Amino acid sequence: MWLRFVATFLSILAVCVAVLNIVPWMDIQRWAVGEQRTVQNAMAGALRGIQAGDPLAVWTLCSTTAAYGFFHALGPGHGKVLIGGAALVSGVTLKRLSILTVLSSLAQAGTAIFLVGSLYLLFQVSSEVLVNITDAWLASASYAAITAIGAVLVFRGMRILYKLGQAKQIAHGCCGHAHYPSVKAVQTLTSARDVVALIVSIGVRPCTGALFVLVIAARFDAFAVGCLAVVTMGLGTAAFNLTMATSGVAARQLAGLGAHNQESMQAVSATLHVTGGVLIIAISLGMLLPYLS
User: Fold this and answer.
1) Contact indicator for 139, 211 with CB cutoff of 8 Å
2) Nearest 5°: CA angle at 16, between 8 and 151?
3) Which residues contact 188 (CB under 8 A, 6 or more apart)?
4) Segments making up each domain of the chain, as ranges
5) What contacts 208, CB < 8 A, 6 or more positions away?
6) What is d(CA 42, CA 234) in angstroms, rounded to the nearest whole number?
């Protein structure tokens, strides 16, 4: 069983490395950054239109922020890492995971609204300080939380493998059949604690673009419109993250095609937990290290 686990684990990692090398991620990210700047200029123009009383400016702003959220998600970020990893290892349906993806993105919007509403409007904290708080404190807290979730996934996967090994010993030593862990025991995101941890770890760090929109909207006495624009920005981010969720669920289902019995299913699930956890830890630590140096 351990040889099969190691072989499967290395195969999945090899596929992930191949994908990272084949897909031109740097070119995609440079293109996404350029599109973000274009969209930021369009957002500023829409906000000026709102200040001038243009009736179509609100629609322009919301559609632009939705596009910004989508392009922003193409760049380096923690949300898609965790969503993709959760989709790979969890036993939940795509529908449930899609709901969690949308809620996580809206949680980011809610954090931005809370920060600007409480710190900027009430305490007159400057926009530069808000960005520093987001980058220096909330970003590192988010990456640390995601690293912890990855560690939990690795722990769960190794625990499943340990139980499978025990079950085989029982099967050979006593009653003649294996007491494998139940399907529910190897699933992820089935408890309220798992769901809250995922949403909080993503939502704790707001997008700096959302802070930009809210601060400018507050200066133009249009904070409510800014809140609406930030929500649509979150929905744009969710639209991209949904592609990661769909890809993760598809990969999980493909990995389970060769499982013909309960033992094989649990071994595949354990391997996916360990692999997904290792990938999440590696990527989130890569994002966290610059804040620790």
Assistant:
1) no
2) 75
3) 86, 89, 90, 91, 92, 153, 156, 194, 273
4) 77-292
5) 131, 134, 135
6) 17
d(CA 269, CA 271): 5
**Mean pLDDT, rounded, for 36-42:** 75
Task: Say how far apart CA 133 and CA 225 lie, in whole Å.
Answer: 24
Q: What CA–CA distance (Å, rounded) separates 82 from 245?
A: 9
**pLDDT for position 79:** 74
Distance set, CA 99 to CA 51, 62, 83, 135, 146 (Å): 35, 21, 11, 27, 19
Average pLDDT of the chain is 75
H/E element holding 212? helix 208-219
Q: Is the pLDDT of residue 224 over 80?
A: yes
Tell me how far the alpha carbon of residue 201 is from its chain's centroid.
8
Alpha-carbon distances of 240 from 110, 162, 194, 235, rounded to whole Å: 19, 37, 22, 9
Q: Distance between CA 74 and CA 10 in Å, rounded? A: 27
At residue 192, the pLDDT reads 78
Quote the CA–CA distance of 252 and 49 in Å, as a whole number: 47
* Residue 254: partners with Cβ closer than 8 Å, 6 or more residues away: none
185 or 114, greater pLDDT: 114
Q: Provide mean pLDDT across the span 143-147.
A: 81
pLDDT at 228 over 90: yes
